[in-house]
Each structure stands twice: as C-alpha cells, then as structure tokens.
UniProtKB/TrEMBL annotation:
The chain crosses the membrane at residues 31-55, 61-80. Keywords: Membrane, Transmembrane, Transmembrane helix. One of its GO terms (molecular function) is monocarboxylic acid transmembrane transporter activity. It comes from Exocentrus adspersus. The keyword Calcium does not apply. Gene3D superfamilies: MFS general substrate transporter like domains. This is Monocarboxylate transporter.
Length: 100
C-alpha cells in the first residue's frame, strides 16, 4: 500500500517540479527528456543488476549499486533549487541592463 502512495506522489509531483524549475513553456520538452532518461535507466538497470549478480554470486552488490545510484541522483538534485534561483536572478539582471 505504501509503495502505491509513493509512486502516485512521485508521478503527480514530477510535472509540478519540472514547471517550477523550467517554466510552463518548456514542460513538454523537459517531460519528454525526463521520460527518455527514465526509460534508458530501466532498460540498462536490469542487465546491469544481473551482471553484478553473476559476478559476485549475490544480490547484495546489485542492491548496493542501486542504492548508491539513487543517493548520487539525490545529491545531484539537491542544489537544483539554488541554481534555478541564481539563473533567474542572473537573467533578470541581464534583461534590465539591455537598453530598449
């Protein structure tokens, strides 16, 4: 039951986060690229996990790899809000400096 709730929250918040970071005008392109990378990860993930299982003889390495990849993606996503605010400030300042 809890897995269904988490998946539903992720699916419903994905569009909101993309609009917040990139704007409504770029939603379709950003959402398409997001789904592309999720699909590539899903295609590559299972054979990679099987290769780790065959190499080590245990599923532990596959789960550790999966967990470390999730942790790495969370660490990369952490500064996105700060970078987004910085870019909006920079673009706002550059737009004001251009004479009309």
């Amino acid at each position: 039951m809890i897995e269904f709730i988490v998946i539903t929250c992720f699916a419903s918040l994905r569009s909101i986060v993309v609009v917040d970071l990139l704007g409504l005008e770029k939603l379709t392109n950003a959402f398409g690229l997001l789904l592309l990378f999720q699909g590539v990860a899903a295609i590559i993930g299972a054979p990679l996990a099987a290769a780790f299982m065959n190499a080590t003889g245990s599923y532990n390495a596959s789960f550790y790899l999966s967990g470390s990849m999730l942790l790495a993606s969370a660490i990369m996503c952490y500064p996105l809000n700060w970078i987004n605010k910085w870019e909006k400030r920079r673009n706002g300042q550059s737009n004001k400096a251009v004479p009309v």
